[in-house]
Amino acid sequence: xIVLGIETATLQVGCxxxxxxxxxxxxxxxxxxxxxxxxxxAIEFVCAQAQVSMxxxxxxxxxxxxxxxxxxxxxxATAKAMAQALRVPxxxxxxxxxxxxxxxxxxxxxxxxxxxxxxxVFAALYRQVPGGVQRVxxxxxxxxxxxASELMARREEFLLVGDGAIRYAExxxxxxxxxxxxxxxxxxSAAALVELAQPRVQRExxxxxxxxxxxxxxxxxxxxxxxxxxxxxxxxx
Length: 237
What we know:
Layout: E1 2-7, E2 13-19, E3 22-29, H1 35-50, E4 57-65, H2 69-86, E5 90-94, H3 95-100, E6 109-117, E7 120-129, E8 132-135, E9 140-142, H4 144-154, E10 158-161, H5 163-167, H6 169-172, E11 178-180, H7 190-202, H8 221-230
Helix pairs in contact: 1-2
């Protein structure tokens, strides 16, 4: 079965096509934050490169977050619309899982760190297991400094991946047992999304399009600003 992967959880927009034989074509771009404008032409591009027609797609996989609110909304909405139009099921995968998978061969504990803006990061920890990685902590929203303190307390060797690890590099600079991955591992990959979706396709671990929900971990900036406007000014103490 051919799977279309849609990745928009971060600054990078990506899509890929693949089946049991591997990834057939992929596209990634990380400039301009124009997710809505870039995604549809990118899907058409990978279909043309892979010589796959839309009616050959058997499932749609999408990154459900955590990540940037606007990007997630574009990706999940597109995945739902395409799955409904093609009458195929969908698979939702975590952006943090997608960051960990390409570095699954390391023996270090993997810390996946996504820039959440407002001085915060989305993060989760992973460990190598036969055939891949296993998450050993729940996805969380925290500050880079708090995450660095948690890593120090564990007294293990770590590999840091994700754009949050790059943006807040100074918060991790004092940790002697931490290695930072290259910029090639800054963003979740649509190719990894397709690869990780394949075992779920074989086990038929699908959801229907209307059941798919993004994993935000916190309110959107617009909602937070609106909530603040609703709180009356407090008199001075």
